[in-house]
Amino acid sequence: MNEAATGATDGDPFVSFQEVQKSYDGETLVVKNLNLDIAKGEFLTMLGPSGSGKTTCLMMLAGFETPTHGKVILDGAPLNNVPPHKRDIGMVFQNYALFPHMTVAENLAFPLHVRKMSKAEVEQRVNRALDMVQLGGFGHRRPAQLSGGQQQRVAVARALVFDPKLVLMDEPLGALDKQLREQMQYEIKHIHDNLGVTVVYVTHDQSEALTMSNRIAVFNDGIIQQLAPPDDLYERPDNAFVAQFIGENNKLTGTVEAIENGVCKVRLDSGEIATAMSISDAGVGGQTMLSIRPERVRIAEEAANCDTQVSGTVEELIYLGDHIRTRISVCGRDDFVVKIPNSTERAGLTPGNTVALGWRTRDCRALDRPDDL
Predict the structure, then answer these.
(1) CA 142 to chain centre
(2) Do 220 and 246 meet the contact criterion of CB atoms below 8 Å apart?
(3) What is the pLDDT of residues 7-33, one digit of tens each?
(4) Which helix (H) or strand (E) is 35 found in, with range?
(5) Sign of the alpha-carbon torsion through 117, 119, 122, 124
(6) What is the pLDDT, as a whole number, of residue 349?
């Protein structure tokens, strides 16, 4: 994807980054010419590895960082010269940022007192927010008396209690264990669905992004590599970085022999022929990388009716409960993975055995080949 990534929004965007750049040292750009529109009521996740620019974008939106170039706009108004406390934005941080000397109710009431609301309205809003995160009876407790998950719910409630225009969440579930993190993903998603508030969420966790978002912006090196709904991003990655960063992905390399009607024929490095959806810029004779998800590969008898068929040698089988993760040597690579449902017959799938593999053309994408492959 090029450096400009606009959102598919109806009407005027609620949040807009326009030609935004950010440098901390005056030389290196950590955000490069960002154009991004976010619709009102949308849950957009900025996803990427550390140092990719996603958190810097969130901090510029919050007002804790200033763009080196370009404009950030919220609800039609430029934000560049508006201080953070006047932006009407709720924030949820990874470390909760709760006041330890205050009760839960006092923590929630704090942003309301700052806005000089009446005592009756403060009480009403605090109770409503606590009920929203299922902590109705916890208002008198202090943060230290709560579990990590409960503290994070309080942080979410505090961000929502004053009905902000926008809620920003910066790695809010990073400090929680796996089971609690997954539970909180669903809870935050349901709160968003019920309230319709606009959320911009930052994470490096792919499953969080896929579970919660309307759209995901995948960042790398200060540039949005792809901006799309979760299913598009997973099923139809635009480039090798996105294919490898989102979920597990098999990679095979080869040379393009023909392209017709959006489908290319590729001679793999092993000499075998494969067909794939042509996404890369490589023309006939160019080098390409085939990308296919482990669950899309068929094995043994199921491979017989596939558009592409290759052979491989079983290296390893790992039992993972609902499926068997099978590692296979294919075309000179020993990291090709097939996920086999646990209910599938596994006769012949023994390390050292040769097996047939296959896939449909529409499940395989021919992408630009990275330099490190």
Answers:
(1) 33
(2) no
(3) 544 578 999 999 999 999 999 999 999
(4) strand 29-38
(5) negative
(6) 84
CA distances in angstroms from 134 to 50, 197, 213, 297, listed in the order given: 33, 18, 22, 43
Q: Using only the alpha carbons of the chain, give its radius of gyration.
A: 24
Average pLDDT, the chain: 91
Residue 147 CB partners (closer than 8 Å, separation 6+): none
- How far apart, in whole angstroms, are the C-alpha atoms of residue 368 and residue 278? 10
pLDDT over 70 at 373, yes or no: no
Closest CA to 47 of 261, 252, 237: 237
H/E run at residue 111 = helix 104-114
The two beta strands, 323-330 and 15-23, are: unpaired
273-278 and 365-368 strand pairing: parallel
Percent composition of the chain: helix, strand, coil (DSSP 3-state, to 5): 25, 35, 40
Does residue 181 have a pLDDT over 90?
A: no
Query: Can you tell me the distance from the alpha carbon of 53 to that of 224, in angstroms, rounded to the nearest whole number?
Result: 9
The distance of Cα 134 from the centroid of its chain, to the nearest Å, equals 26
pLDDT (tens digit per residue) in 307-348: 999 999 999 999 888 889 999 999 989 999 999 988 766 667
**DSSP one-letter string for 40-94:** TT-EEEEE--TTSSHHHHHHHHHTSS--SEEEEEETTEE-TTS-GGGS-EEEEET
Given a cut of 50, is residue 282 above it in pLDDT?
yes
Residue 202 makes CB contacts below 8 A (sequence gap 6+) with: 45, 46, 54, 55, 57, 58, 168, 169, 170, 171
d(CA 100, CA 17): 35
Strand intervals (E) in 212-332: 215-220, 223-228, 250-260, 263-268, 273-278, 287-292, 298-299, 308-319, 323-330
- Residue 244 CA to residue 344 CA, distance in Å, equals 27
> Which domains are seen in the chain, by residue range?
15-238 (3.40.50.300), 248-368 (2.40.50.140)
